Amino acid sequence: MKTLFKSYLNTFAGLSKAVWWLALITLINRAGTMVIPFLSLYLTQSLHFNLKDVGWIMSAFGLGSVVGSWLGGKLTDRIGYYRVMVFSLWGTGILFIALQFASTFIGFCLGIFSVMLVADMFRPAIFVALSAYSKPENKTRSVTLIRLAINLGFSAGPALGGLIITTLDYSGLFWVDGVTCILAAVVLINVLNPKSTEVLDDVKAESPVSAYKDKAFIIFLMAMVLFGVIFLQYFSTMPLYYKEAHHLSELEIGILLGLNGLVIFIFEMPLIKWLENTRHTKTGLMLLGAVLTALSFVVLNLTSWVGILIIGMLFMTFGEMIAFPFSNAFAIERAKKGNQGEYMALYSISFSIAHIFGHNAGMQMTDYLGFNNTWHIITVLGSVCVFLLFILKRNLKLAEQK
């Protein structure tokens, strides 16, 4: 056990101090976003909006995310990642506190749009910062560490949020969310000031290629939108499937979803370190991740045995653990061809688009077609995603041979 634990710790070796600080800031920030998991409950129970209104508010949420990611990329290229991250954290903190005072439908739509616009400016900026603070050989593991921080934050956030609602009320969530964002900004200012932080890989393209004209990157983004739509089913339609088709209790559903976070926490970093030492390309590994995620839906229609849900969850989890870090590292590496903020903004937007359409499409399909037919359609989307990544891999191989 001691040797195993030492080997596990060694998978984190070599990462820069700045990357660890970024992970801590991300953990504080993500643990603080407690409003989001309880947003639909707050809107229906406290503000008494109907489900149609909630749907439009979530659309405003997604739209703010898209605009924020795009604007964050533009500003990162203009004024630098540090200033954008500081502004985003401070601004999000203030806007979260103010959001509790929005009580009308239009007011809340504008409020949540503004919050997400400022909040998601952070995403392309942190990716560029991560690239600057990581040695080239450590970028994928640096991304994985940030993912671990995000997963820990999202795990702790809802639990803390439920406790705050019980002891205070919903207004307490907005205050804690706001204060934690401001706290993350204070930590960032004190530990990652550009004057005292060593940059390990700051590449500026002399003749930058526009991300919009990078055909390989556009194919990659199309695949990521599809992958995002598929992946998000596990956090929207899948819990309903567990409940309605397999009659699991809320506790059993929580344990099954918790299995995802536990496996990621234990296995992701060692798995990524091992895969980095193989001869597989990033595109090949992304393709493998997409295949595993698609298989997680294929197996659901094979049998009514309840144990298949665990097998499906494990397929999805390992697919996610492989696809996300290597897709992120691929985007960071590709961004060196042009304006890094622009590239990373489009990468962030691909998942914002998946959020806008993925949840709603899954719900509509299960309502009209049933769960089994929905999983067939999701499998087809997964096959298209795999095909696009195969085309990307082949095109990149041909480009290298020229």
Write the layout of secondary structure elements.
Layout: H1 2-10, H2 17-32, H3 39-46, H4 51-79, H5 81-99, H6 105-119, H7 122-132, H8 139-167, H9 170-191, H10 215-232, H11 237-244, H12 250-276, H13 282-298, H14 308-334, H15 340-369, H16 371-401
Helix pairs in contact: 2-8, 2-9, 4-5, 4-6, 4-7, 4-15, 5-6, 5-7, 5-9, 7-15, 8-12, 8-14, 10-15, 10-16, 12-14, 13-14, 13-16, 14-15, 15-16
Could you describe the 3D structure shown?
- The chain is mostly helical and 402 residues long.
- Helices cover 79% and strands 0% of the residues.
- The protein contains 16 helices and no strands.
- It has helices at 2-10, 17-32, 39-46, 51-79, 81-99, 105-119, 122-132, 139-167, 170-191, 215-232, 237-244, 250-276, 282-298, 308-334, 340-369, 371-401.
- α5 (81-99) packs antiparallel against α6, α5 packs antiparallel against α9 and α8 crosses α14 (308-334).
- The protein is globular and about 60 Å long.
- The mean pLDDT is 83.
Explain briefly what this protein structure is.
The protein has 402 residues and is mainly alpha-helical. It has helices at residues 2-10, 17-32, 39-46, 51-79, 81-99, 105-119, 122-132, 139-167, 170-191, 215-232, 237-244, 250-276, 282-298, 308-334, 340-369, 371-401.
